[in-house]
Design the sequence.
């Protein structure tokens, strides 16, 4: 992800960002995936804070109340069928995501930096979503866990998902040049969920309702517009009694230029 | 009350009553007393609440009346307890049954203000149907904590 001169002038917070975008060439970046990812995360965090300051904001209570009444209404509409409600929320999110991604890329200035089609692009999206997108639209940041899988790349880690409890890049010390490219799955850990303020899920839906499922849809829609077909779901949810919120994003397919199914399902 | 060195809570019972005088929440803290007795106390106190509300409406509003209109003060004393009331502008009423005698007005107001804030949080859940019984477990826990901290010397 080399910083081009155009990219620097497009982002008013340019000097700070440009100075720390360390890797000079894509080849050098791929050769040291662990360091690359960490420095990228820091500069993205700064970008996220800058963009957050510039965008208009609304009261988070208002957002929580609006979203809450929408979830309750959907549950009524589907006669309490929780799985259907989860699907509806995800679909709504998808329709939001395909539009939101344009706004995001324009406002954040990352449009010029998105190496759509590059092997490691999926791994890049993790920190971008966690540090910039979440900050810009929800005012909170997430931390990222990369899930190592038994990937085609010669990583030598036989077992599947090795989750790094410390939260940052779980890429092992012996990662090779294709480390970042082999990432097929990552987790976004969200400690604060502004959509879920004041919410207590009643017994009949407890454990089944994925209350903030709209977020999963938004991520899926946004990534599909960037040629990445993913599956996105909550694996841990504070409203279901877990200690934190975790969204798992799994890459299913890199779409060719024939384009995604536009307009939503 | 008790000879324990730790300050005991003076709250015997706290209740929330809706605008149609329907009980939304009743929590009694004295195991040895009959819970029904507290239901009865709360119910009879509602008459006094209505009286006080209509009284304050007849009096010309003074610059300070906005604050005092919510806090109704001592509703009536029984042989063991004193009952205090507080009404919100949405006609929800909070009833507090205490065991202690010498309590400052300021403590009562402080309790009710905090209780009002907990009530607002509980009611803000989208799954709460308005004017129905409050079933929020978080509300239960927070109310327990709040009442436990309300001792002879007020609250921290």
Sequence:
């Amino acid at each position: 992800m080399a910083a081009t001169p155009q990219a620097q002038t497009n982002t008013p917070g340019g000097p700070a960002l440009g100075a720390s975008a360390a890797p000079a060439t894509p080849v050098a970046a791929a050769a040291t995936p662990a360091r690359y990812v960490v420095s990228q995360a820091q500069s993205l965090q700064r970008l996220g804070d800058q963009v957050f300051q510039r965008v208009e904001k609304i009261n988070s209570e208002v957002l929580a109340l609006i979203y809450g009444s929408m979830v309750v209404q959907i549950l009524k509409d589907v006669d309490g069928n929780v799985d259907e409600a989860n699907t509806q929320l995800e679909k709504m999110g998808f329709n939001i995501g395909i539009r939101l991604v344009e706004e995001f890329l324009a406002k954040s200035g990352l449009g010029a930096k998105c190496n759509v089609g590059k092997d490691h692009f999926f791994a890049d999206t993790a920190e971008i979503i966690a540090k910039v997108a979440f900050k810009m639209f929800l005012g909170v940041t997430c931390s990222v866990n990369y899930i190592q899988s038994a990937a085609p790349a010669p990583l030598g880690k036989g077992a599947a998902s090795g989750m790094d409890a410390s939260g940052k890049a779980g890429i092992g010390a012996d990662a090779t040049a294709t480390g970042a490219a082999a990432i097929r799955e990552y987790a976004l850990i969200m400690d604060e969920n502004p959509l879920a303020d004041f919410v207590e899920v009643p017994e009949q839906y407890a454990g089944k309702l994925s209350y903030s499922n709209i977020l999963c849809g938004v991520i899926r829609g946004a990534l599909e517009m960037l040629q990445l077909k993913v599956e996105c779901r909550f694996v841990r949810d504070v409203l279901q009694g877990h200690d934190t919120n975790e969204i798992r994003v799994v890459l299913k397919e890199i779409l060719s230029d024939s384009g995604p199914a536009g307009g939503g399902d | 009350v008790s000879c324990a060195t730790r300050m005991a809570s003076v709250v015997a019972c706290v209740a929330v009553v809706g605008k149609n005088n329907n009980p939304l929440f009743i929590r009694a803290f004295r195991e040895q007393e009959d819970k029904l007795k507290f239901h009865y106390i709360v119910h009879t106190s509602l008459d006094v609440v209505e009286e006080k509300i209509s009284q304050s409406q007849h009096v010309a509003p003074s610059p300070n009346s906005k604050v005092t209109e919510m806090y109704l003060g001592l509703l009536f004393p029984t042989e063991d307890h004193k009952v205090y009331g507080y009404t919100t502008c949405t006609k929800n009423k909070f009833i507090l049954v205490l065991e202690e005698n010498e309590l400052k007005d300021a403590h009562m107001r402080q309790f009710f203000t905090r209780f009002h804030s907990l009530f607002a949080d509980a009611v803000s859940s989208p799954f709460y149907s308005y004017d129905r019984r409050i079933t929020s477990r978080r509300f239960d826990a927070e109310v327990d904590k709040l009442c436990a901290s309300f001792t002879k010397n007020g609250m921290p």
In short: Confidence is low (pLDDT under 50) at residues 1-5 of chain B. The longest strand of chain B covers residues 11-17. The interface with chain A takes residues 121-122, 124-128, 135-138 of chain B (CB under 8 Å).
